[in-house]
Amino acid sequence: MTTHTTAQGNDASSTDAADADKALKAKHRTMWGLGDYPAVATEVIASLGPVLVEACGVGPSDTVLDVGAGSGNVAIPAARTGATVTASDLTPALLENGRLAAQAEGVTLEWEEGDAEHLPYDADAFDVVLSCVGVMFAPHHQESADEIVRVTRQGGRIGLLSWTPQGFIGQMFATMKPYAPPPPPGAQPPPLWGDEEHVRALLGDRVRDVTATRQTLVVDRFSSGEEFRDFFKATYGPTIAVYAAIADEPGRVATLDAELAELGRRYGADTGRMEWEYLLLTARKA
């Protein structure tokens, strides 16, 4: 009798965990559909995709998966090389934006909804698996890393580009953290993907030939801290979500406004030249 009760309990726990994960992913899907992330991708970080494609030597003979593809910041440049590319993301609205951008450019690739922690692909399915400031936002880092390794063929390349904790975007998240609702149990901060040791630990001995460098994206899109802040308040899902959480507290809104503008100034927005640090890590599946 005890054994039967325990089994029921385990089944219930599994169901509860699955339901919680489904609710969390729905929340993420909604968040990234807020604002206008494609504007961030095209007006601010467009050069990052080609950097990652080049670092991984993507070419016409490759099958490529872009995890957390968004509107195609990496997938479209990868497809330009003649590679066979699949862009996977949790948020259908971003994929639709990417599909339209690819059509306008005359580039062909597949756009498929998928969860980075549960990729809908066979093991060893791709020659190259990439993610540019994408997979870092999946809440459970080890699950995402396991999936990236699983779908990469033996000897295939893995390329990850992520904002560092110390860099501008990492510090933006640190600035917003006191104003945001507490993260769900088990969720990890996105900028940890910009810490080399953290990513090496996630991938473990399943990869070889790891190279990791901290590089800088020069951003000349903004002329003041206020302009940076207002752009992100209008376009960037995580920032919009934080402001929504404190919308009924005008004092806290004003304080966060001031802190984000000051952060922008500290990183050079008022000079018209900001430097945003990221970690570029490449490896081969062992």
TrEMBL record:
Record has Lipoprotein as a keyword: no
Keyword Methyltransferase among UniProt keywords: yes
Enzyme class: transferase
Keyword entries, A-Z: Methyltransferase, Transferase
Enzyme Commission number(s): 2.1.1.-
GO molecular function: methyltransferase activity
A biological process term (GO) from this entry: methylation
InterPro entries to which the protein is assigned, alphabetical: Methyltransf_11 (IPR013216), SAM-dependent_MTases_sf (IPR029063)
Domain Methyltransferase type: 65-158
Protein name: Class I SAM-dependent methyltransferase
